[in-house]
Amino acid sequence: MGSEGGDGPAGATASRTARPTRTELQARLDDLIRENRVTVAVVFPAVGSVLLVASAEGLLPPPLAFEPFTLLLGTLVMRSPLLVGMAPLIDRRAAVGVTALAGYAYAVEFVGLRTGWPYGEFYYAIDLGPEVAGVPVGLPVFFLPLVGNAYLLCSLLLGERARAARIRLPAVIGTVIAMDLVLDPGAVALGFWAYPGGGPVYGVPLSNFAGWVLSATVTVLVLDAVLDRTALLDRLATCEFALDDLVSFVLLWGAVNVYFANWGAAAVAGLFGLGLLRADRFDVPLDGR
Fold it and tell me: Hey, what's the signal peptide range on this chain (predicted)?
């Protein structure tokens, strides 16, 4: 009978309800990001910068100012191009590596909050959402993409030279430090976190950047060990939105630093904008595709 062979109504129903394959799901996610590039990479950081500054200036009432779940949700949306762009590269080995890096992020933050090592003494000045032992649960969402964006940008700008670890490692580490030169001054100005002892870089101590040398080195070494570099370069060649999260970073933190007159930090953000242009990635079109 037809139902026994899978060609009748039962077979048709089974076919319609079959779960999409990973390839099909990835294609759907790619299309979703492409269709909403302007919203994700331009509108969200623009609105986010306004809300953050308004919160810092006391223009929003306490229930809305720095609302933690809104902060986390907005960050996840802006991270989505990077997450979707990297998804095809995450096999079992890469998943283990990324999980280990998330664990490292928690561990080093836990130690840092209690000892001041390796970033220098600091504390969170606002609520960043649910915590485990004083460390925000969403920490990997803030930490890992910082290095991931640097890793992808250097892979694009260095081309074939990025295949050499002796070139790739210092280039990515230097790029991560430059990104933190944008992020930390803006975050301190907003009141996200604070360094009680202050520091020469808009209130940020040099020990913070030394700590990022350690964290960036650990992260790059793990990414090198678990990612297929050929597959990575192939994906970058065909995935035009993979660095849209860095576009968001430039717009949001560049605007915040301009508002607070952190001109050096804003200038570094501008350099990242130039890097994206050179990599042919600061190309979010008006129609979102």
Answer: none
Alpha-carbon gap, residue 223 to 115, rounded angstroms: 27
Beta bridge partners of 201: 204
Secondary structure of residue 131 in the 3-state scheme: strand
Name the domain count of the chain: 1
CA distances from 19 to 23, 28, 48, 85, 168 (A): 11, 13, 36, 22, 39
- pLDDT, one tens digit per residue, over 225-249 is 999 988 998 999 899 999 999 999 9
β-pairing verdict for 135-136 and 193-194: unpaired
11 lies in some domain? no
Residue 20 falls inside a structural domain? no
pTM for the model stands at 0.89
Model pLDDT for residues 154-176, shown as the tens digit of each residue: 998 988 888 888 999 999 999 99
